[in-house]
Every structure is written in C-alpha cells, then in structure tokens.
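debug: dumping io for the single-chain case to check the tokenizer round-trip. Nothing else runs in this session.
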Amino acid sequence: VGAWPGRGRIRATMEAAELRVGFVGAGRMAGGLARGLLRAGKVPASSIMASAPSDRNLGAWRESGCRTTHCNLEVLQESTLVFLATKPHVLPGVLQEIRPAVGPHHVVVSLAAGVTLQTLQRLLPAGTKVLRLMPNLPCVVQAGAMVFARGSGAGDGEAALLKSLLSSCGLCEEVPESYINIHTGLSGSGVAYVYLFAEAMAEGAVKMGMPSGLASRIAAQTLLGAAKMMLETGEHPAKLRGDVCTPGGTTIHALHQLEKGALRATVMNAVEVATERARDMAKD
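debug: decoded output
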C-alpha cells in the first residue's frame, strides 16, 4: 500500500496543534519560557497549565490566558509536555508525588540545576521520556542560551520537539549531559560576569564625564552589538577584536591595560570555578 503523501507533515501539524504544555513550578524561568512559546505562537495560552503551591506567581499566568492549579497531578493529567521548574531540593518530593500519573505519552523536561538524568530516571517510571534542560536568565526576554540532554527513554522526536519549541526563547542546543555543568559556568553564571563588565565599562564613562543612565545604555548596546556580530559573522572573537585595533590607536592602548589586569585569565578562572561548583552541587 502506497504511503499517503504528506501524512507525516499533517501528523506533525496535528501534534503541534494538540500539544498541551504543563509547568510544575511557576517561577521566573518557567514564566520566561511560557512567554517565549506564547509570543512565537507555538502554543495557545489555553493549552498551557502551571502549578504552584500558592497564588503568588500564578496571577501573571492567568492574566496571559494560561490555566493554573495548586495541584501538580492536575498538570500531569492535562499535559503531554511537562516542564519541572521547581527548586532542585524540592524536586525529589515532587517526582515522588507525580510518579503515579506519569505515562508513556508524557515528555518530562527538568530545569532543576544539579539533578542528573540518572536521578530523574530513577525517580520516574522505567522508560519515561525525560530530558534535562539548562536555561539561563535572558530566556525571560527570549534571548536565552539553553542546552539540553536526553535520557535513555527520549528519542529524536522528543529532542526535535523541544528544540523547535524553545528556539522561540533563544539559542537551544542538544549536548552530552557532561556539558551541562560547563554551560552553567559559561552561560548560567556567565550573564553575571557580563553585567559586571558592563557596569565597569559604564563607570569608566561616568568617570570621564558621561551621565550614568546614558553610559549604561551605551554599554549594554555595545555588548549586544558585539555579540550579534560574533553570531552573525561566525568569526573568532580574536579576529573581530583585531579588526577594531588600528596601529597606535585608542583600542590597542585600552586592550593593553586589560591584559595587564589579566582579564582573560581571570574570566577563564571564573568559568572554571563556577563549573566545578556546579559539579560539586550535583554530587551533594
């Protein structure tokens, strides 16, 4: 019997239309991911449900048309794709609670830092399709950098679904699980290094006579523009940096000061210690 032409495409479209997304935990990161899905038109608000123990975070979800509950099990009953967005120390208890409701039709995605796929698979029914996602704070403005790793029950379809949905929230890459702690040191914590650098740049301009608000805006736009050039040109940052330096000019004089202050080695050390700390936390 000949295959019905376009069947796969139609099925994929139907699945997207029928996709029901749940969030167990309704904090800042969960809200940021949900906003990304809504803004990109990936999932209608009526197909999103979030649970939290109190109403403190749920009001904003209701305002955007999502459904809310205080019952984690209800999220499992109403959703096929479930994001576990609780604090890491709360997650084992939550997994114990929802375990009876998890079925083969569910795709479970954990956002909890330091909770390994091995732990998730041990605490969920055998064969559960589980993935581990590590977002960063700019996901809340749809400019995040996220990596995810899949457990043994999750296949190419689940990975493709997650990547397709989360592309609306920023960069999303599948990686081996061992990269997740490095991503924490590079990007999860890394946004704070960038804020510190931006603050220092702006303060330098204030020292030279520019008003603080203007200096902060220009510093932020400078970082945004430099990052966009890195992503869009695909050039190595050293090449882009060299392009800015004219012989005997302002930039090379400034870079000499940064090198004297060991900026490069200090930032590498920061990524290293944050990664090690993430590894230690995963062992606890």
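debug: round-trip ok. The chain has two domains: 7-176, 188-283.
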